[in-house]
């Protein structure tokens, strides 16, 4: 009997990638959250390259990676391709990153070629503690 190599029907929870695109006046921001590696990078690559090469009046493309939990070394090359595509069309390209993703981009020395802006994740405010009937003096 031959071994079975069927793929699981549900995706691996850590390999999920969510993307959103925000178009403003002359600017496009592609926000990613989740895990970017060779298995999940295709839609991210497509969104970035579409924004960088579109025949419109875009002057700045931003890749927001502040909610990305993992960026593979191979997938980091997508950022360099996007930067070069923007440069050829006279557009600015920048990357927002934090935490391990920022550290990885700095270790690869991509910050020498691409504008990488270190950021912090938005802080969610904790709910106020419930008031009690006790008076503390």
In short:
With 137 residues, the protein is α/β, with parallel strands linked by helices. The chain has helices at 41-53, 76-88, 99-107, and strands at 17-24, 27-36, 60-71, 92-97, 115-118. It comes from Actinokineospora auranticolor.
Task: Note the topology.
Elements: E1 17-24, E2 27-36, H1 41-53, E3 60-71, H2 76-88, E4 92-97, H3 99-107, E5 115-118
Parallel strand pairs: 2-3, 3-4, 4-5
Antiparallel strand pairs: 1-2
Q: What labels would you give this structure?
A:
137 residues, single chain, 3 helices, Transcription Regulator spoIIAA, alpha/beta
Instruction: Report the span from N to C terminus.
Output: 77 Å
Please identify which CATH superfamily we are dealing with. STAS domain
Question: The CATH topology, please?
Answer: Transcription Regulator spoIIAA
- If helices are DSSP runs of H or I spanning 4 or more residues, what is the number of helices? 3
CATH class: Alpha Beta
Shape by Cα distribution: globular
Number of strands: 5
Quaternary assembly: single chain
The overall pLDDT, averaged over residues, is 83
When the domains are counted, the total is 1
Order of helices and strands: EEHEHEHE
Q: What's the story with the biggest beta sheet?
A: 5 strands, mixed
């Amino acid at each position: 009997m031959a071994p079975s190599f069927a793929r699981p029907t549900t995706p691996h929870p850590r390999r999920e990638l969510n993307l959103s695109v925000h178009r403003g006046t002359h600017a496009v921001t592609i926000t990613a959250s989740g895990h970017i590696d060779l298995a999940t990078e295709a839609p991210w690559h497509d969104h970035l390259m579409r924004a960088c090469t579109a025949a419109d009046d875009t002057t700045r493309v931003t890749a927001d990676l502040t909610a990305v939990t993992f960026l593979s070394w191979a997938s980091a090359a997508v950022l360099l391709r996007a930067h070069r595509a923007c440069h050829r069309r006279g557009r600015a390209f920048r990357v927002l990153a934090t935490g391990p993703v920022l550290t990885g981009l700095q270790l690869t020395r991509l910050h020498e070629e691409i504008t990488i802006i270190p950021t912090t994740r938005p802080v969610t405010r904790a709910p106020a503690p419930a008031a009690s009937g006790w008076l503390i003096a």
